Amino acid sequence: MTATDGPGHFKFVPGFVRQNAGKEEIYMLEEESSRKRSRKQQEEEPFSWKKEIISWIQIIVAAVIIALVLNNFIIANSRVPTGSMENTIMSKSRVIGSRLAYLTSDPERGDVVIFHFPDDPTGKIYYVKRVIGLPGETVNVVDGKVYINDSDTPLDEPYLPEPMEGSYGPYTVPEGCYFMMGDNRNNSLDARFWKNRFVEKDKIIAKVLFTYFPKIEKVE
């Protein structure tokens, strides 16, 4: 590009051309400069195993904290070592329960729950059974059939793998407590045989939702 230097004369002005090269050239120069700075920083900051290890430790600690919060306040994870709840929950299955299920409501008949075994003074033994008797009710087992209060009609229990044998009771459930039985009645050490037959509501840890080992299956 030229600039005039009097009538009929033109003079080449390099600075003028450079000044008007446009934003694109300036941008390209800045981008190249940025790349050089980035390469320089990478050369000046070699890989650090210490930083890598600290980063992984932070991730692991965060994962452990989340797991503890979930397991102590939201879900319960329990193993069923016997066949007392077959065929609903098979022996050696692992189950997940909700700790939030009874915050605003009470357990209902038929719920499968995880609770502190009432005959264990340490409070470290957990059982998984089904709620059969509710607070204030009388549970009576006659010839393998479960009757509530003075009803002439036994409970409908489609979850039982086989007919129950024997007669037990009657058991009157105290207020604030529940009467638990296993689904595999002929092979279940449940409230019929405990010294302390009833489970207080605050000893119920969670409502069982599903098994996740050896297979994932909803518990009803």
List its salient traits:
eight-stranded antiparallel beta sheet, alpha+beta, 2 domains, 3 helices, three-stranded antiparallel beta sheet, Umud Fragment, subunit A, membrane, transmembrane, 220 residues
Concise overview:
The chain is built from three helices and 13 strands, in the order E-E-H-H-H-E-E-E-E-E-E-E-E-E-E-E. It is α+β, with helices and mostly antiparallel strands and 220 residues long. Strands 3, 4, 5, 6, 10, 11, 12 and 13 form an eight-stranded antiparallel sheet that branches. The chain has a three-stranded antiparallel sheet with strand order 8-7-9, with no helix packed on it. A two-stranded antiparallel sheet has the order 1-2.
What would your notes on this structure say?
The protein folds into two domains: 31 residues; 148 residues, Umud Fragment, subunit A. Strands 3, 4, 5, 6, 10, 11, 12 and 13 form an eight-stranded antiparallel β-sheet that branches. The longest helix has 26 residues. 22% of the residues are buried. It has three helices and 13 strands, in the order ββαααβββββββββββ. The termini are far apart. It has 220 residues and is of the alpha+beta class. It is found in: Cell membrane; Membrane. One of its GO terms (molecular function) is serine-type endopeptidase activity. Belongs to the peptidase S26 family. One of its GO terms (biological process) is signal peptide processing.
Helix/strand layout:
Elements: E1 2-4, E2 10-12, H1 14-19, H2 23-44, H3 49-74, E3 75-80, E4 93-98, E5 112-116, E6 126-133, E7 138-142, E8 145-148, E9 168-172, E10 177-181, E11 198-200, E12 204-213, E13 217-218
Antiparallel strand pairs: 1-2, 3-4, 4-12, 5-6, 5-12, 6-10, 7-8, 7-9, 10-11, 12-13
